[in-house]
């Protein structure tokens, strides 16, 4: 039955093609239903894969399905093959499950464009084409059995993200955000590409397929082969992960990515794609363990990103921006978890985060829907009367995000903190706790400011209306999952841990022992207290004494400015790009034909040797070209002659 | 004196194409300008030549030879296929636009076919004289094709520049061949290798010869600093010619380049591979950086083609069978994606236009979604994004270089493909994320409803003041673009269909 | 004897080459070129390459220089120089000169040090018409035929270029 796993690609691919060619004729909302049903079918296949694996004995839960032989170049022979194991099936479930709900939500949401006009049928269909394409690419990424195929999916989701961020392309900011996301991701992809080649260069003879199972085998049996390159490779992979998962230093694209439609933010830029970096790191964890130091880097990158993004989130008033920085922060948690060896904790948090963050984004979309695209929480207020369903679900999501005891986020965040504590990384643990506090504060800021109190903008408030059932239904499902998601891996039950057991055992280092029961309970209590404390602080600052927040802001003005400007990362990158651009102009000026004139003329002016500027049409330039050819020749000749003379 | 027996089957693809060229000339004289017949003959002949090449490559046993002059091994025949791909697409693109600029359509197809003969012969040549003559045949034909638009001074300019510099480069090549002859007393590639096996008696002369040969080939494939002609000739020549020559000339020149350096000069490899590595690095970097600033499509693609010559040269630097196979694969991928990109440009071109500004792509995804999608595929493929052909080309080339220990060169190459993403991306941004320039004022004036109005008017964009609208997409052009897009995707999805075949084919040149 | 003859002729050849470059009048340049070609023909014959010598006279001295002269006469002798180098480009010239000198120095060094010594080997037979014809129609048949294709291309090209451009 597992051999039919490829069926998971068929429905979205088919829907994609139908919508691409006949989307306009299908019209609204048929194109949307088609896309949603297709992902639903994929989810059923993913369930099939899950139960198929469940039916196998634990040690046999790693099944490779080769679809076709993809590339055969000497030793280098990655196949188009799927690896079905607990890790990939978990990811497939999350991708298709959350993906399905968001598709359903989109059917209604995307009927209107960003300015609340009717979206024409062609663009509507195109949206679902892109969204289905994303699902396909993401499934390739998580189900790939080798690094090259993973890279294919990696680029594919990047492409989908770029197309969808720029979906409202008539807004220059959206088109720019798309471009920014794509280019920043290329930097990360560069790390990925070089890492793959280095791995192949090191172990091509043993594992030319670059399949994960082969790599694990090589790591276990002949680790020295990889030991030499492991540090370089893992650092490059970390670079790739920071690009895709928006970590320091490549996080700058994600906040801008909120220019895309809100369901896209929910699906791609919160629940699934951005977790690809975490998934990849967990997938390659045996190699990371081999490299040793890199894991420390991973942990610190994650912890610092988590803390910094949380402080930025506190300063923002745009609902989606807060959620974006919150996503970055939570992804930082996952990296922290990976870095301290808590792979299960990281995957656990990844799963629960997918539920509650998708929920928060969709609920934010529902608010936007009600308020005609308004996102500034300072213009909202009292919305819980007008949008009861949205309010209730948003509250559940925010509570889960804040780590309110017994909700899913509480358990998963605690799992990461426990793992950090177990790893004796107390400084990291402290950073994690502070971040948890801040998280609770901004989570409930998002609840108190827009939903409680008095309406701040009467006109907006009067226009507000609850979203239709097709949009609230996914909210309720996600809310339910956010509540019970913790069951996946309750402490002391550890279902997920058993499910992912085999993966964890692959590394050469192995896992530290669980701490004593008392310690674990104490840590649990600390986490709960921190979350509740944060919520209380938010209540004080945003409900009881609204001027308190202002006073605090005044007190720590420099810090606030720093955070509000995103720690000047964007500014630095702009300077860097400007510099590069000037450099390229300079370089191009020296090479580019058009500026050969200019360069020559510059020379002429400097030395007064050359006459007037020669136009491009003039054949006189030919002699200059010939001269360049000749100078090149002399250089090459000189090199060869020198070699000949020195060589003998 | 005994006359030699000639195994002419070796040159079967060339002979088919040559015959067709003559037939085209005769038919042209008989029936006047019946464009479809001439194009039909050319297409059939090219496809037949391709089929012949594939048939020959499937023959078991030792490859057949024509004396010591030419060989029909897998390497030559697969390069024939690459050239046929570029030529078929070139003929399809020419079908619409060449009759618009010239009445000598027959001569056009004849020259194109003769250029193909020269190109195919370059890959098959085992003797420096044959290489040189083949190089001259293709060059001469291309000089004239580049200047085929007689009513456009820039076309004549392109032709003249190409001719003057090309003659210069040919002289270098010839001098290099003479020096290699001086050092080894032979012009036959295998005999040269044999003569060098025991060490050369006059290494300086040999190395000077190699240097001159590098310059000669470097000019043809446009390696920096021998690239100067490219940014003038590519935009100046009629677009179908540019499309054809950008891919086919590179393929032919690299075929001879590879065979000469890997068959005849492996003993000097440590020396020439360093020279070529530096040239490749410089070429990739300068080509990409210069392309960043271009706002016109043909000129941008000209610089991009320089950069791609650099990528392909990386495979040659590797100097292994894997590297040679990589170059072959890369050039096949390049033939599809680059000719396709030029095909889209040709479809957008207006009569009497020198180059197509990038801004003209604005809103193409709304006006002609299929064309825009094809262009996006070509751009992503040229960037090297999976699962398109260009990605595997780069992967293969860089993989070979890493395996041969040229890590630093690969890092430069990968950084370069990151840079190149920027300008290829600009094209897709323009097509998908930019409102058509002509409609922008209307939309602004009409306020919020403007977009809907503009969209309704989109299928028939009003011609901009004074300029003719691009001719409606002809079936031939559409077929060419479609075929190129299909090829780009297919190679990307199923590269293994080719790689095994290629790996086997390139064994012959070692 | 041969050596004396060689040096006398070599001086003549260099004088001819220098004359081509230095002469202000294009007709004189062409005539100096003729001198250079003729001396080269004598060299070929001295080297036992009779065929090459004759071809040199027929093709270069006979056809090409005459063609040059025709063109010069048609467009006027004074106009000709520098049509392609438009204006004075002293920096370019200086670079060209330096590059040329470097190349020359390299060659000279190579020759003097013996690094450029040619592979010595006796050429089979002589450079007679018969010998060349024999090789050309047996071993070098393919190049011979390719040359004919090349001429065909040149011919079509000439026709294309000679026709008046037609606006359609």
Give the helix/strand layout.
The complex is a heterotrimer of chains A (648), B (510) and C (168).
Chain A lengths: L9 H17 L3 H25 L8 E7 L9 E6 L1 H24 L11 H23 L3 H19 L6 H32 L8 H10 L2 H21 L8 H4 L5 H10 L4 H8 L1 H7 L1 H23 L3 H21 L3 H28 L12 H4 L1 H15 L5 H15 L3 H26 L6 H6 L5 H16 L10 H5 L1 H4 L12 H28 L1 H10 L1 H8 L4 H23 L1 H15 L13 H27 L1
Antiparallel strand pairs in A: 1-2
Helix pairs in contact in A: 1-2, 1-4, 2-3, 2-4, 3-4, 3-10, 3-15, 3-21, 4-5, 5-6, 5-10, 6-8, 8-11, 8-12, 8-13, 10-15, 13-14, 13-19, 14-15, 14-18, 14-19, 15-17, 15-18, 15-21, 17-19, 17-21, 18-19, 18-24, 19-24, 24-25, 27-28
Chain B lengths: L11 H20 L3 H23 L6 E3 L3 E3 L1 H28 L3 H20 L3 H19 L6 H32 L4 H9 L5 H19 L8 H7 L2 H26 L4 H24 L4 H22 L2 H28 L15 H4 L1 H15 L5 H15 L3 H27 L6 H7 L3 H8 L17 H19 L2 H10 L5
Antiparallel strand pairs in B: 1-2
Chain C lengths: L1 H21 L3 H21 L3 H26 L14 H24 L15 H9 L3 H22 L6
Describe this structure in words.
The complex is a heterotrimer of chains A (648), B (510) and C (168). Chain A contains 29 helices and two strands. Chain A is mainly alpha-helical and 648 residues long. In chain A, strands 1-2 form a two-stranded antiparallel ribbon. The radius of gyration of chain A is 27 Å and the shape is globular. With 510 residues, chain B is mostly helical. The two termini of chain B are 34 Å apart. Chain C starts with a helix and ends in a 6-residue tail after the last helix. In chain C, helix 1 runs antiparallel to helix 2 and helix 2 runs antiparallel to helix 3 (50-75). With 168 residues, chain C is mainly α. Chain C has helices at residues 2-22, 26-46, 50-75, 90-113, 129-137, 141-162. Chain C has a domain at 1-78 and 157-168: Up-down Bundle (Four Helix Bundle (Hemerythrin (Met), subunit A)), CATH 1.20.120.1200. Chain C is globular.
